[in-house]
Amino acid sequence: MSAFTIARIDLKRLAVRPFAWTLAGITLAMMAWQFLLGVSAFMHAQPTVPGPVMGPGFTDSVVAPYLLNYIQLCLVIAPLITMQALAGERGAQRLALLSASGASGAHIVLGKFIARLAFLWLLLVVVATLPLVLGGATHPDWGQFGAALLATALCVAALTAIGIACSAFTPEPALAATAALLIGEALSLIDAGVRITGGGGGWLGYLALHTHLAPAMRGLVRSEDIVYFVLIVALALALAIRRVAAERERG
Amino acid sequence: MAKPPALLQLDHVSRRLSGREVLHDLSFSLQRDDVLGLLGVNGAGKSTTLAIVAGVLQPDAGTVRIDDRVVNDDLPTIRARIGWVPESVPLWPELTVSESLDACGRLRDLPNAVRKTACEREIARLELESVAHRLCGQLSLGQKRRVGLAQALLHEPDLLVLDEPGNGLDPVQTSQLRELIAGLSPKRGIILSSHELAEVEATCNRVVILHEGRMRHDAPLGASLDDRRGKLDAQFRAIAAQPAGVAA
Hints:
A: mainly alpha, B: Rossmann fold, 9 helices
């Protein structure tokens, strides 16, 4: 059995849950509104900004802030969509059912992670189609767009992994969501003070999501940023796997 | 001729949960064709014993063997030989009965053709045809129990572990469950827990009585139902009335 079997079951369950559809509907409506506001602001400001070579273009002014808004929304959505993943399953004995069926802790955690990530990435695809449809009418910087999309996808994966880890360590889904939200917000705001005062980041800066998102939003893909997100995913999933694998011992 | 190894063998199994010793030095065995009833009052350690047998919980001390193979040493292989239905049946409420069975077949790595046949076989055996396309979350308790059993039987396990299978069933469903267990037992070992004496008397050929995590009685039941009736009741009441810490 592979993690994909568990992911397939969970995706099927997500697909019939009103909660997932409501969450998706609200997210897409909010993102569409943000996009319209962004385009409107860009069109109003366009006559006043410098020429196309010097000034910020459509990708800088609309697409990058738009994708950052999706990440801000994911700080809330990811905990909500992951909170039941393990915490809710444990109470209903479904985690034990998976174990009794032969699934290892790694299979369970990876399966749950893949299903939730697929849901959030699917939303990201829909979110990304809005700027794409304007591609014919304007001149987006495709390289910058791709870099921003990659960073967004990686950041969403990191937030999902954090949510899964919190769900593994807490008995109640609400507690898992709260913990994931707090960790996500902490990573988002950890260097806010330093940024406002214009100081250097240091290790606080390295931990902050913004430090690793900002270059990609300008079109710069740095390996250290990719490593940062991959490290968060790996660490969170490793902790979750350890916790689920220890269920037999803990009871 | 050498005696074949027991299908299930528990040796000196102990387990603590939340700082409390739930099982203490528990040893018993189960032969193929046996239907063993674990009897005990609430909190006696029945569910913990069954969870350990099913490989869901790890014993703190002692060993559990299936056909002489230690469960901890080869967990994935051993789990493939066990079907487990816990007291609260774990179902996916968002899936239909047939989807749920198909999912369990996939979890068990059954090939496509085998999985399809197994699902049809269990739906027919557990008389689930009328609810096959209904969501599991919409089923009655009796139907949920039957779906749980179907999930556990899908891979034709050698050992069936049933935790309080008769809980919440009406008399008709209880009678159907007894017939089902009788039909399943010739091919496999069955271990079930209950605090209902009548259920154990009617379905089992052996009984183990647990009290405060310790085994107090392990013996075959009398051949006829008349022999069984009354004796077990008296033994169970005497054991259940014993204060904590009294040895058997």
